[in-house]
Amino acid sequence: MGRERAVKHPQHQQLSATCRCGQVKFETAGSPILTGTCYCTSCQQAGRQFEELPAAPPLLDPDGGTSMILYRKDRVQCVTGQQYLEEYRLKPGSATRRVVATCCNSAMFLDFTKGHWLSMFRNRFATGAPPLEMRVMTAERRAGVVLAEDLPNYPRHSGKFMLKLIGSWIAMGFRRPEISWGKTVQAPPRQP
Fold this sequence. Notes:
By secondary structure, the chain is α+β, with helices and mostly antiparallel strands. 16% of the residues lie in helices and 27% in strands. The protein contains three helices and ten strands; from the N terminus they run αβββαβββββββα. It has helices at 2-8, 41-51, 159-171; strands at 14-18, 25-29, 34-38, 66-72, 76-80, 85-88, 96-101, 106-112, 117-121, 134-136.
């Protein structure tokens, strides 16, 4: 079964994620932990705030979800433009920070600082992004949004989601690398 799975889902050895203007570039190595779309209230709120920044590219999918590719923190590097990265937290002291490339207001990734993974925003990968595997936190989606049945739709985080995270953490030797890209900022700026 493992060999069949590898044939059906090829290894993604290296992918690039860039901001809209191209001044910030990340490279990933190896396969992602998983890919999915999150509908939690926090992701929706942050997405709306980031999209209000001047000339910001879209972050939210048309149905209000935020599509992400989760990688081990030790498999992502910022190769150019680190000076443009700025972090935002919805609440002071939150363990979740979202990082934006200020050169063009492109949201780049979400970092759960207590975790071992980095959630790269899928729309920052121009080519080669692996297909979505699941939708999570669907119980918090916008009213009236009907989800397709093309992927598993989980009202919260699924067991599969948690098992993949645990498996990747074991593979990392239970390390939690710190990602320091970005500057500390209280909350996303509001537009007048």
